[in-house]
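Action item from last week, closing it out:
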Amino acid sequence: MPRMKKSSNSIVAAFRALSAGLGRVGQWLLFVPVRLLALLPHGLQRTLGKGIGRLARKGLPSRVRVARTNLALCFPDLPETDREALLKQHFDELGQMLTQTLCAFWGNTRQFEKQVRIEGLEHIHRSQQQGRGVLLVSGHFTALDMGGKLLGKQLRMAAVYRPHKQGFIEQQVLKARLAYGDAMFKRDELRGIIRYLKKGGVVWYAPDQDYRRGSSVFVPFFGQPASTITATHQLARLSGCAVHFFSVKRLDKSPWYQLRISPAMDDFPSRDAVADTRRVNQGLEQMVKDAPAQYLWIHKRFKTRPEGLPDPYQ
């Protein structure tokens, strides 16, 4: 998840400071309400999540401005009233992202595991039967962690993540993810990722944020020049893996979650890292169009600009 800034930064900083100063026992006591929230019934979690999202929309004006700017950039032809409706839906989804992520980490997900709709598992199996590892390319959607857990129950899978700076939080989240994931790689552990792919493993990866580190190029994302890392091209080139798109969508009724895996990308990687990265963004666009309210619009996707273009978030 992106780091919250301004109004939300004080909340995160306060939690980290309190957690660090409490000691081990105090940290666990602080963590108890989080674990209890994860155990609430699904219907109550959804209702509570929407309430949290609406509070966030009122209490985090800086994040609202970022999301509104992103929606205007990416959907310029959409009437403003429709974009505002989409903005409200997005914050409802953000609140549900919180409660459903906690459920994925520490709650009972058996009902979702039984009912989830997964399309395209055969594409992964086909690539592995060809002796290739599989790189699952996804985006930062609000159902991200639940989708990862549900797919992780079907096959051995690793993922790439950004670690939390606060050690106690990092320990608890990593432990929760490893309960259903085969391995977790930090973003800069490229050698480990490549070794895992060369052995035929499945790695889940989301390259859709504006990272300051790594090799990046400007390629279109909804018609806007977006600084995008070329790691998908590089990982495929160095490991020989197949690249598939993986989308996760939360539904309003049973089966509650829909997972889709695409066939392997044809002629990927090519010799052109820019062209390959453009193709990746095109695939991510299709995912966003399928569930626009569930994409993480509060991230400053266009904060890095080509020379001469103004910062849209100012």
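Closing note: The chain has one domain: 8-294.
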